[in-house]
């Protein structure tokens, strides 16, 4: 196995372990889940698990990196499209792609909401930074739309944050929402609501 293929194998294995761990953290709680249980759920020995992590406390950092790896190309693509697409279409596409990302990372997102009280500031730093980047990008799209006369909004930051939370609601309330909507339906609703909020969810003031 070449160094490159070995690195890829290790990365894929770590992502698999992380998804299993996120599921256990969701079902049992972060503090209640042991490394032995994670290893058993992954069908590997505890010794093999420690080849990939030093301790359970590594998972917040690993989850952060997975978020970053997902958000980085999304942000890069959206910023590129802002140069030639109309703000309304950019906002809809940005919300659509980000909501599908929430669906992919839902267990890890739930981990942050459930386990944040157990984590220190350093463990939370990366995920807070990612959240800030996403909200800021939504804000900038709304500001661009206001400049072009497509949107009317007195507080693009608050609206951007509300759009961010709307996408996260799919993870937070999926147990209930999935009885009513398929992910495709919820994505479409998010697109429509985001544009509605940007257009005048908050009254524009002179």
Strand and helix map with partners:
Blueprint: H1 3-28, H2 35-41, H3 46-52, H4 59-81, H5 87-104, H6 106-115, H7 121-147, H8 156-172, H9 174-177, H10 183-200
Structure description:
- It is a single chain.
- The protein is mostly helical.
- It folds into two domains: 1-54, Homeodomain-like (Arc Repressor Mutant, subunit A); 57-200, Tetracycline Repressor, domain 2 (Orthogonal Bundle).
- Helices cover 76% and strands 0% of the residues.
- The chain has helices at 3-28, 35-41, 46-52, 59-81, 87-104, 106-115, 121-147, 156-172, 174-177, 183-200.
- α4 packs parallel to α7, α5 (87-104) packs antiparallel against α7 and α8 runs antiparallel to α10 (183-200).
- The longest helix has 27 residues, at 121-147.
- It is elongated and about 60 Å long.
- It starts with a helix and ends in a 6-residue tail after the last helix.
